[in-house]
């Protein structure tokens, strides 16, 4: 297969470790490329393993951007994901953006968060990198939203703990609970910041 050509004009955003590009041949997909040196912590490989693990267990993936495997690009190996898009085809905003700009009321935010929590607990899904920029707030119908996870699933690194948390229900539940508490702390901080009108949020 020929190599996919990426360039800066296709760049959507950069996270701590990966750059996210619009797929030049498919508007509904993105390609994530590791840009950090060293590769000791390959988030692409890890997420690929984890999402396939969930698929093998026939897990409900309705709050996750699906992942389709690796392709070769001029910037190296990339992992293809569904692009977060709203019902009208417009790009979805991060949950942090919605909080910072008070686009949803606190009550609406709480409802979406509670739905996500139930989803993670019911389906035993590890959401570990709990930054609010890893959650997107998809408008699925006019004024109707749902939170989807675009990053931060599984674990931050490979290893024994990841294996444990994946394979033993008791540990999975424990980890989900712990990470959820972390997420809520980050969320409450952002809410306070938005209330105080403290801007700009550095990353949205
Ligand atoms: N599926 C997606 N659709 C649209 N934008 C995305 C998607 N996944 C990630 N992004 C954007 O790209 C940024 C970086 O991607 P991310 O997977 O979070 O990288 P990292 O692992 O380095 O944090 C995200 O913060 C988000 O703004
Ligand atoms: Mg991220």
UniProtKB/TrEMBL annotation:
It comes from the Bacteria. This is YrbL family protein.
């Amino acid at each position: 297969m020929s190599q996919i050509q990426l360039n800066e004009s296709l760049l959507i955003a950069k996270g701590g470790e990966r750059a996210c590009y619009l797929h030049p041949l498919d508007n509904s997909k993105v390609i994530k490329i590791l840009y950090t040196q060293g590769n000791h912590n390959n988030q692409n490989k890890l997420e690929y393993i984890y999402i396939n693990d969930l698929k093998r267990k026939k897990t409900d993936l309705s709050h996750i951007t699906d992942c389709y495997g690796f392709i070769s690009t001029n910037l190296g190996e990339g992992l293809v994901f569904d692009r977060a898009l709203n019902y009208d085809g417009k790009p979805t905003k991060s949950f942090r953006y919605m909080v910072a700009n008070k686009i949803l009321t606190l009550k609406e935010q709480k409802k979406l968060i509670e739905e996500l929590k139930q989803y993670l607990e019911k389906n035993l899904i590890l959401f570990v990198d709990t930054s609010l920029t890893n959650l997107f707030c998809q408008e699925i119908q006019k004024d109707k939203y749902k939170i989807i996870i675009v990053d931060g699933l599984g674990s931050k690194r490979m290893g024994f703990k990841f294996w444990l948390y994946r394979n033993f229900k008791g540990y999975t539940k424990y980890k989900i609970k712990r990470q959820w508490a972390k997420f809520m702390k980050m969320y409450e901080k952002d809410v306070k910041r938005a209330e105080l009108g403290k801007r700009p949020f550095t990353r949205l």
